[in-house]
Description:
Radius of gyration: 22 Å
Structural class: alpha+beta
CATH class of the domain at 176-215 and 303-435: Alpha Beta
CATH superfamily of the domain at 176-215 and 303-435: Thiolase/Chalcone synthase
Distance between the termini: 22 Å
Number of strands: 16
CATH topology of the domain at 176-215 and 303-435: Peroxisomal Thiolase, Chain A, domain 1
Oligomer: single chain
Shape: globular
Largest sheet: 10 strands, mixed
Amino acid sequence: MTRKTIYVVDGARTPFLKARNRPGPFSASDLATQAGKQLLARQPFAPDELDEVILGCAAPAVDEVNIGRVVALRMGCGQKVPGWTVMRNCASGMQALDSAIANMEVGRSELVLAGGVDALSRAPLLFSEAMVNWLSDFYAAKTLPQKAAAVAKLRLSYLAPVLGIMKGLTDPNVGLIMGQTAENLAYRFGLSRTQQDEYAVRSHQRVARAQDEGWFAGDPRHGLAAEVAPIFDEAGKLYKDDDGLRRDSSVENLAKLKPFFDRKYGTVTAGNSSQVTDGAAWLVLATEDAVKRHGLAPMGRIVDSQWAALDPAQMGLGPVHAATPILQRHGLALDDLDLWEINEAFAAQVLACLEAWKSDEYCTTQLGLEAAAGELDMDRLNIDGGAIALGHPVGSSGARIVLHLLHALKRTGGRKGIASICIGGGQGGAMLLETV
């Protein structure tokens, strides 16, 4: 089947704001609305000319479950523009793009706003099962003596909250939190603590350089509008930069941190893992007919996409399983791509992907290749840093890496790149992009 050409016209994201042990200043819908309004305001079409709005979100609040529709209305798209929500864990934002492409391929849509969001700082605190059962007994009591008897059974331990984000980041099939799956990969490929910390430092250094050079603010010479859209809270405070960056990050400083997921033998720490973060990212997608009709100037196109699945306990290798079929279909080697984005859920996870491609055993037994795929040039990978320094708002990251890869390709004069992401539950997603 001949694929339609799907263009990326423009995109924008909020600053990624680190969770600081309390609810952040913005709800998920606040983030998506503010970024989306600014993006739509610089387009030559009206918001109500969109065919649909698709938003990925892994943890929508209970009062905005179909957050795609909530945000579409708040952005001024009007009552007749459908808005809907998709969820594929860490790749929810990428799934929104792929869902848009599917509808555009069959002619249901021509102009779509798609992206992702999560406000992880607002993940709920839950009652324990023991507390829920006690409350049920208490409210079922009819008489004062019955209620007094119920009160006597209350234990202080019942009041300990359950962290919703910890449950959400734990795979129910293998019983492992995502950081433990990263420990599995570090052990499997013999990745040292120092290797992981060195990679983490590199991420912070590259984000610092990108901020200092103004690369997130756009580049008119290459027709790039601002990637990061500043946002304001209800008190009028401005948030214009990603705030998880640690400019003083060093291997020496990171070495002081204790392993978090395997406290006795582990190597994965808070410092070489992605940060819990709030953020939103959007892209405007258009068919060739929509580009002509509205006089749009695309920045690139999405050439191909792929989803893959693997053992949930090894979920961090998802990018390898998703990107490799794309390489095969297009006759590409790893370094035939000008740039790569692999979402940095954990330093161990990214490094394990590189080791897997270098391994004859892994590539032949797990990917069906005749030999190792080869070694990916680190100077092509995440050239402006990644989620270790920026943060990983789960629903948003898949859209962010696609948007940023196009920006980086345009800025550096590159032509082709792949954005890929691992997905909790044992999956991977990848997209092949090309500048125009």
